[in-house]
Amino acid sequence: METRIEIKDLSKNFGKKQALKRIDLQIDQGMFGLLGPNGAGKTTLMKVLTTLTKKSSGEVTLCNIPVEQSSQIRRIIGYLPQEFSMYGNMRAYEALDYLAVLSGMSKQERAEKVPEMLEKVNLGDQHKTKVKAMSGGMKRRLGIAQAIIHDPKIIVVDEPTAGLDPEERVRFRNLLCEIAKDRIVLLSTHIVGDIEATCENIAVLNQGEILFRGKVSQLLEAVKGKVYTAEVSAMELPAIQEKFLVTGILTSGSSATIKIISEKPPMKGAGPAGADVEDAYMYLMHQAQGHRG
Amino acid sequence: MFGALFVKECKQILKSMVYYIYVAVFMIFLSSQLSGDLTDRMEKPLPDQEGYGTIVSHEPSAVMEKILAELVMETEHNSYATYPMGFYKGVTLNQRELDEVIGIIETCTGKSWEELMKEMAAHFSQYDRTTVEGAMAAQSEYSIFAKESLNYDAFCENMEKVCSIIGAGSSYSRKSIEGGVSVPMTYEQAVEEYEALCEKDRITGAVSRLFCDYAGIILSVLPIFLGVTRCLRDKRAQASQVVFAHKASAFQIIGSRYLANVFMAALPVVVTSFVIQTPYQYHSNTVGISPDLLAFLKYDLIWLLPEIMIVLAVSFFITELTENVISIFIQVFWAMASLMGASALTGDFSLKLVARWNAFGRTSEFWQQRQQLFLNRGFYFGLSLAFLALTALFYEKKRREGETLYGKLFKRRK
Questions:
Q1: Contact residues on chain A for B12, CB-CB shorter than 8 A
Q2: B294 with B406, same domain?
Q3: pLDDT digit string (tens) for A198-249?
Q4: Do A186 and A111 sit in the same domain of this protein?
Q5: Are residue B106 and residue B148 in the same domain, yes or no?
Q6: Do B247 and A86 count as a contact with CB atoms less than 8 A apart?
Q7: What share of chain A is helix, strand, coil (3-state, %, to 5)?
Q8: Where among B144, B164, B184 does a domain terminate?
Q9: How many domains does the structure of chain A reveal?
Q10: Which of A77, A85, A97 comes nearest B239 by C-beta?
Q11: Which of A14, A52, A71 to mutate to test the interface with B (most CBs of B within 10 A)?
């Protein structure tokens, strides 16, 4: 079975609102990042892939299985929704065991895999902690454990790091990279840092449309030579922000060091600066909106 | 997978506060209704006893006597009890309507209204009506003979005319009249009844029947709360999406939840009925009657289980459909309508949700109506499976489309 997601001409309408507009995407084994602002249609796309929402038109196959065959699809996917939670009075072990039963695992398999997965997501010592007593990070780790326990070919994680502290976020990203070795991990997020740290292949979604698909290096290429840095007076900042796309400001007393994306040198004294994914993403979004710069 | 899910659901129910409230309310209700000793009603009748209780009679002359007596009493007060939609409604007639009813009574009895009033006053003056027992005895022993030339069919036609004046749901409808009337038992009838109690019910059967009558009342409502709680649990815990995305089919998920709730709801019922039966089991042995040791289980399974099943199935269906607690209001109304709509406290099972037999014994009469009870319970058993299938189908649809019917309607309205 080929581990691949193929999306052709996918559209999804909610009444008159078009949430996804003729999406074409191919996702192969490894980590894949889906980046976009809130409301871009990322969650809708995730739900179509996980059979939780019907597509309006187009073709979607996961490992060559059409998404319409929902029961077959559910066997090969693991899903961590944006708002993952379980019954508050269940302990970590019980919750994972319950969800493992829903995945069709036998008693022997569960007895072996549940403790193993809890260890893997660093919840081994907290297997007796009730879900209602868990922190956001612990819940997400439990969420990823339930998504991978049945060894799915495809794992879909929707905004997994939102609300986590920096340490939890790094730990979680590393965990995702670790489990992506022999399967597809589709990571949806609006946090550029998550994509930068984990994904080589990405797509940028905005208002239901794919703005970019390719490698991170290709995205960076688009902004190469267009990122400048300059030291300006704090008083000038509002006017500069009005005129240019400013992606970073570091104030120090009455002056500020700013990062600007511009087709040509924006002002005297501005020098070239290194571009990161956030700059490239911002540039792409502003291009799409027909903004200045 | 189904068995493991079933066990896990049962464990979850055991951790639920709602379940313990269910058990407590059930126990309290039953102990308040069945706390009395029934052994005095199991004694063999003696020839010189003061009375032997009552029996339902379908004898035309007895029916006419009692129905006419009730009509005269209600007409005297110009206050008629009716149950048009299952709920009590008192009816007061205007003078023209009242005169029409009095005319019908005079036609049926061959006596003037004044004569009837004199006879009535004479009858009631024989009793001490300041006590409840006296008032009840005066009322139960009051009867009016129909005139000799009036046959049963003509009597029924006259009562239909009364019905058309008073309105639907009165005691004078053909259906109500066909239910028979309570008349005092003779010694021979009492002996016959006692023999049926010993041979057919073997004592414990009659105890279980009375238990089912009371338990059936409370079980028309209590399981609703278990069903609603289970169906709203995923939503409250924000676990719907994660459960939806798993391999288990809608039939496995809904079926295991439903079966676990049916099992856990029935468990205290079976235990309580066994506990209530036990002393009577010993009593039967001491008086030399072989008790039916499994009577409690037979009655629970045939009488109460279909009721638990249908109440839970409907609450599952409505709650999955709407994702709110509206099922509680709908089903409490249904239970009340069933209770209030009963034309008798014993029998008349038809398709009523709550099957009533608020009497100890009356074995022969029950045995005659047993088939009707089986049909009633069979109907609800089948209906609950149909509702369960519908719930699973809707759950699968919701799983694929991510919306409830209520959500769609609400959006359209906006």
A1: 87, 89-90
A2: yes
A3: 898 999 999 999 999 999 889 888 888 889 998 888 888 888 888 888 888 8
A4: yes
A5: yes
A6: no
A7: 40, 30, 30
A8: B184
A9: 2
A10: A85
A11: A52
